[in-house]
Amino acid sequence: MPSSNKKSQIHTEKNATYMNPKQLKHFLGLLKAWLQQLEDETQQVLSEIKDEETHCPDMIDRANAEEQLSLEILTNQRDSRVIDRIKLSISDIEQSLNDPSHHSYGYCKRCKNEIGIERLEARLIANLCIECKKYQEVIEEQTQT
Ligand SMILES: [Zn+2]
Question: Which of 21, 54, 89, 117 is spaced 20 to 30 A from 46 at the CA atom?
Fold first, then answer.
């Protein structure tokens, strides 16, 4: 995760072009670190599952372990969706670095406006600006009720 030092560096460059190569590389580094962290955690969960399978012959332990297991699988599924989004963001950034006219990472998928550095810092995989995100939430609420 980002050091507060690095964060302020990006923020103080008031006149910098939005999503210039330096900023793109900054976010690329953060995304890659996050991806690595999630993949490490996934590996850890998988090895814990193996341990539990071999180390609980007792029936009660077995039931507890299975409950624990399904929780971990749920977490894993959520993580794998996040991992997909991270990978997509990484490839968007790499395309933008190769071709500066290619605007994707940091731009809203719906209205094509800038998402904003602060919003991206808070949510690296954001692909909607705050207005479109709010709009989407309203639509989702209406379709659910
Ligand atoms: Zn938007």
Answer: 89
